[in-house]
Amino acid sequence: MRSFLFILLAGLLVPSARATEAETIILKPSSPWQLDYGDERCRLGRYFGTGDQQTVFWLEQFGPGESFDWLVAGPAIIGFMPDEPLKVRFSPGAEAWEMTSAAATLEGFGSAIIGRGPLRIEVSYGLPPKDEKEVEQEDGPPEGLSHLDTELGASIYGFRLEQDPKQKLVLELGAMEKPFAAMNQCVEDLVASWGFDIVQQKALKKTPNLKNKAEIVHKLQRYYPTNVMKNGGQARFFLRADVDEKGQSSNCRLINRTVADHFGTMTRQCEYIEEDAEFEPAIGSDGKPIKSFFVASINYQIGK
Predict the structure, then answer these.
(1) Which of 46, 134, 256, 262 has its CB surrounded by the most CB atoms within 10 Å?
(2) What confidence tier does 26 reach under pLDDT thresholds 50, 70, 90?
(3) pLDDT tens digits, 91-107
(4) Nearest 10 degrees: CA dihedral of 298, 302, 303, 304?
């Protein structure tokens, strides 16, 4: 049990909302950043605007990684249409990219848009998996624990959404270097709560490598229930499993975030990881195999 709330970077708050001639809604922060050390995730959130314009924005991570899930919800995004292209940018440090977001709501705030960042995340929908030869040619697993890039964070001050010329929203985040550093610390604490020595994990020469990635991806794709697919249903969740010194996986967990109706019990994915996945174990700083963990973010979505 590690849940507690840490408030950081209060700074100077000047709540306001204004629209320019180009109909851009610009919201300034109306609260400090709040970092929630949850039992299964880290969430960094902040309110923007006041009154009938109050909007919530948060970043979430369920394990180490260079990216995060983000959510923005509130009256400021009511005009944005789900399942239609929109441009996203963590500005000015990251390039803009185009994405679509399914209809979503957040209790107390109404309409919500969900995505990943701070850079474009390449996702393939319904494509045949790569063959084993292609997988072997990819870059090897990273060293140590991956983390959010604080240097990139220092160059990010705002969050922008655009959908056609009429729908534009800007959240004035402020410099994100310290918030990214705080998220990194929270994630390290999360890994420690899984029973791992954080010093050893940060010093890994190689993290666990899923050798039969193509096979597992193909199994996961085939699991997309036909009735859910026909209705455009989606599911997004985080998967984590321990990988021991021999490459055997165990203790797989699924952390559901959003799951479509009739998607099933959501246990098959862990069966694939524990029964069918073949791992090369992590390598410690001494060059010997060491127990570590495998993490993955899995999205079931119909692409356009």
Answers:
(1) 46
(2) very high
(3) 999 999 999 887 788 88
(4) -160
